[in-house]
Design goal:
The protein is of the alpha/beta class. Strand 2, helix 2 and strand 3 form a beta-alpha-beta unit. It folds into three domains: 144 residues, Alpha-D-Glucose-1,6-Bisphosphate, Chain A, domain 3, CATH 3.40.120.10; 213 residues, Alpha-D-Glucose-1,6-Bisphosphate, subunit A, domain 3 (Alpha-D-Glucose-1,6-Bisphosphate, Chain A, domain 3), CATH 3.40.120.10; 76 residues, TATA-Binding Protein. Helix 1 crosses helix 2 and helix 8 packs parallel to helix 9. The chain contains 14 helices and 18 strands. Helix content is 38%, strand content 20%. A six-stranded mixed beta sheet has the order 1-5-4-2-3-6, with helices on both faces. Strands 8-7-9-10-11 form a five-stranded mixed beta sheet, with helices on both faces.
Length: 455
């Protein structure tokens, strides 16, 4: 069990649980571990952050840790996570760090490490960093005299990220008729607030911009991909063709069709994979998703003769499967879409541009485009159990028998997924099926059984 790192880096309340002292240790230990694996004794590390009020505090502590080790630092300022990943590869940096708590409220912040390939580092490296953090070795890694690292402010590199989109989409959009197409963009008062409007302006796409005035405390506050109600209303009232919502650090994107209906990550994956299959660019004819993806995505893949691979929850595991088998499209229901031909991490702006391009190229509405996938009703009920017994459901004969009975009853038109929480004393019961009221009743009943048996 890891002490600091979770499924997506370290994420805690800033300046209490995520103290400057802890961040300093994370930075110093991380610089040592990553430089050891890159064989560069004087690594160059990039740092980007989102708009949280604690961002510069955490950034300062990270810079201090890196410089103390002897690493050199380029401070990128506010920049989406995928922008940092892209620049890491482009500049041939040895590693990078994103300071963000993604979709969490402003009082949280976090630290995510990326390798020199612009990819989140694997679990094993995070475990190695933790081991160094809590050991006496940390004191041995202090640079002295001319070996102390130096930092420089490089907020100008934002322009390189904008050019990335122009390079990949400018010619396409110049050939398409965008005159009657209008998109509403919600930047969640987060990291995309510095770049999204510039990208859409550069590509000549008419747009309205929402929640684009970060104060340090309003990131994700009733806005962005976790709160779509304002965007849904805005799209309908202003007769937009599409609404786009990013999360706090910009690696995820959800959308809203012209009728104000949500387009989640599963629908985005269906539309993009269908387009790539038509163009002959879907490598190995395969789409990768997690076990939390809707059953409808699996059915869509079967109906369209696309191979469908599923991983455990977490975009890093989607990416690992893609890299291992040579696939180029994968993602999560939450809107974290990875298109490896462009960037080795989820990129909200990239996803939204690809979806917009498909709609314009096919001259079709967003709602009509999404008819290619039928999303099954899905319910999630939490069973409160003791932390020590979270995984015992697998060995309980009564729980197993009830799950098997439900699976047989669904006959392929529904499914049961049980998943212990990684951070709370909960077992999550997710059921999909054709009748929402029925599956809600069954999920609540199964959750009660789990609570009864595991407490």
């Amino acid at each position: 069990m890891r002490k600091y790192f979770g499924t997506d880096g370290i994420r805690r309340i800033a300046n209490t649980e995520l103290s400057p002292e802890l961040v300093y240790r994370v930075a110093k230990a991380g610089a040592y571990v990553l430089s050891k694996h890159s064989s560069n004794p004087t690594p160059t590390i990039l740092i980007g952050r989102d708009t949280r009020i604690s961002g510069t505090l955490i950034e300062s502590a990270m810079v201090a840790g890196f410089l103390s080790y002897g690493a050199n630092v380029k401070i990128l300022g506010v920049l989406p996570t995928p922008g940092v990943a892209y620049l890491t590869k482009k500049l041939k940096a040895d590693a990078s760090v994103v300071i963000s708590a993604s979709h969490n409220t402003y009082e949280f912040n976090g630290v995510k490490y990326f390798s020199n390939k612009g990819m989140k580092i694997p679990d094993e490296l995070e475990e190695e960093i933790e081991e160094i953090m809590d050991s006496d070795k940390l004191n041995d890694f202090s640079a002295v005299n001319e070996h102390i690292g130096v930092s420089e402010i490089r907020t100008d590199l934002l322009d390189e990220y904008i050019y990335f989109f122009r390079k990949n989409f400018e010619e396409d959009f110049e050939k398409l008729d965008t005159s009657d197409f209008v998109v509403a963009i919600d930047t969640a008062n987060g990291a995309t607030s510095v770049v999204a409007e510039k990208v859409f302006t550069a590509l000549g796409i008419k747009h309205y911009i929402l929640n684009n005035t970060p104060t340090g405390t309003n990131i994700n506050e009733n806005c962005g991909s976790t709160h779509l109600d304002v965007l849904k209303k805005y799209v309908v009232e202003n007769h937009c063709n599409l609404g786009i919502a990013y999360d706090g650090d910009g690696d995820r994107c959800l959308a809203v069709d012209e009728n104000g209906e949500e387009i989640d990550g599963d629908k985005l994956l269906a539309v993009i994979s269908n387009y790539m299959k038509e163009k002959g660019t879907l490598k190995n004819n395969t789409l990768v998703a997690t076990v939390m993806s809707n059953l409808g995505l699996k059915k869509y893949a079967e109906n369209n003769e696309i191979d469908f691979k599923q991983t455990k929850v977490g975009d890093r595991y989607v990416l690992e499967e893609m890299l291992k088998e040579g696939y180029n499209l994968g993602g999560e229901q939450s809107g974290h879409i990875i298109m490896l031909d462009y960037n080795p991490t989820g990129d909200g702006i990239l996803t939204s541009l690809m979806f917009t391009k498909i709609l314009l190229e096919k001259n079709i509405s967003a709602s009509k485009m999404c008819d290619i996938i039928n999303i099954y009703p899905q319910v999630l009920v939490n069973a409160k159990v003791s932390n020590e017994k979270k995984n015992d459901y697998k060995n309980d004969s009564e729980i197993k028998a009830e799950i098997d009975r439900l699976e047989q009853e669904f006959s392929g038109n529904g499914r049961v997924l049980i998943r212990p929480s990684g951070t709370e004393p909960l077992v999550r019961v997710m059921i999909e099926g054709t009748d929402k009221e029925y599956i809600q009743t069954k999920a609540e009943s199964l959750a009660k059984l789990i609570e009864k048996k595991l407490n």
